[in-house]
């Protein structure tokens, strides 16, 4: 899968402090619980997009956490969400969980995210037992450079505060030249900037949902540089085939197979460093050139 010169990536730093960017993100993902099926989240500092909206990935992660907190002994295997309204950063978000199935192998939940009594997002979440089975195949992993010597994406863009981001995103390919048209495909390595506690598997699942909203829709924008369209996510689907470990580098290989009617579609594939495909993502969003 990877091209190596013999060096291995250094491990992430120790677990984050609460006031670090990653620490604040994890605090937001843990949620507060109002009753057994009702949770409260939101943003506070950070998690805000340039147009003063709450980052959709944070809402996804909080929805995954809300559903997961009502399920025992099973792993998240599917999350299918619809973004219904933009979410403001300064008001709390309430997550109501509906129990739709509790079986021996599978459990299902529906999450309703509301802000000011308005429905912002719905998410159907499935949980199951992860186990080895004879029926196993996967899309081959691409050959890319190892992440240890690859540049950080935000640093390469000239952002002075790149080291304060909660997620370390490493380039697999040079940044796209705005003066040229590009194929709709991107590849990035991603990992939190500090260790996530292993004893909190729900936190790993919620953080992965957050991460999968990073960079993906931008893949559909690449053919339209330099002017670039503006867009917002409409829906997001995540399927997992292995337990989630966010403490190791994950390769996010994405492509956009189609765009039309002011919408763009993106597919993402999540690989461990050993080439194991742990999950797939599909996202659709608006793609407006005006």
Distance between the termini: 40 Å
Our estimate of the beta-strand percent is 35-45%
Q: What is the helix content?
A: 10-25%
Radius of gyration: 18 Å
Number of strands: 14
Class from secondary-structure proportions: mainly beta
For the biggest sheet, the summary is:
12 strands, antiparallel
| Low-confidence segments | 4-9
Shape: globular
Query: Spatial order of the strands in the main sheet?
Result: 2-3-5-6-7-4-11-14-13-12-10-9
Q: Tell me, rounded to a whole number, the average pLDDT.
A: 90
Count of helix runs:
4
* Series of H and E elements: EHEEHEEEEEHEEHEEEE
Task: Summarize the structure in words.
This protein is mainly β and 290 residues long. It has helices at 21-30, 56-68, 153-156, 201-212; strands at residues 2-3, 32-35, 38-41, 75-83, 93-102, 106-115, 118-128, 144-145, 167-171, 185-192, 233-240, 250-260, 263-272, 277-286. The protein has a 12-stranded antiparallel beta sheet with strand order 2-3-5-6-7-4-11-14-13-12-10-9, covered by helices on one side. A two-stranded parallel sheet has the order 1-8. The longest helix is centred in the first third of the chain and has 13 residues, at 56-68. Mean pLDDT is 90; it is low at 4-9.
């Amino acid at each position: 899968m990877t091209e190596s010169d013999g060096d291995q990536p250094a491990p992430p730093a120790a677990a984050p402090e609460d006031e670090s960017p990653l620490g604040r993100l994890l605090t937001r993902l843990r949620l507060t619980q109002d009753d057994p099926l009702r949770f409260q989240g939101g943003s506070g500092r950070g998690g805000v997009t340039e147009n003063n909206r709450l980052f959709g990935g944070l809402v996804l992660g909080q929805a995954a956490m809300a559903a997961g907190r009502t399920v025992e002994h099973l792993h998240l295997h599917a999350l299918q969400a619809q973004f219904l309204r933009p979410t403001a950063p300064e008001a709390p978000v309430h997550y109501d969980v509906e129990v739709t199935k509790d079986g021996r192998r599978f459990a299902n939940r529906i999450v309703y995210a509301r802000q000011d009594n308005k429905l912002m997002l719905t998410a159907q979440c499935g949980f199951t037992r992860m186990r080895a089975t004879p029926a196993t195949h996967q899309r081959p992993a691409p050959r890319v450079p190892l992440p240890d010597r690859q540049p950080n994406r935000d640093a390469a863009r000239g952002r002075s505060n790149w080291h304060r981001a909660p997620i370390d995103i490493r380039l697999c390919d040079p940044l796209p030249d705005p003066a040229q048209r590009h194929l709709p495909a991107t590849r990035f390595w991603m990992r939190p900037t500090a260790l996530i506690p292993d004893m909190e598997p729900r936190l790993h699942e919620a953080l992965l949902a957050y991460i999968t909203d990073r960079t993906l829709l931008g893949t559909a924008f690449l053919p339209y540089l330099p002017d670039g369209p503006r867009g917002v996510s409409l829906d997001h689907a995540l399927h997992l085939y292995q337990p989630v470990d966010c403490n190791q580098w994950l390769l996010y290989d994405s492509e956009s197979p189609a765009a039309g009617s002011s919408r763009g579609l993106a597919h993402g594939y999540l690989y461990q460093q050993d080439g194991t495909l742990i999950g797939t993502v599909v996202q659709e969003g608006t793609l407006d050139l005006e």
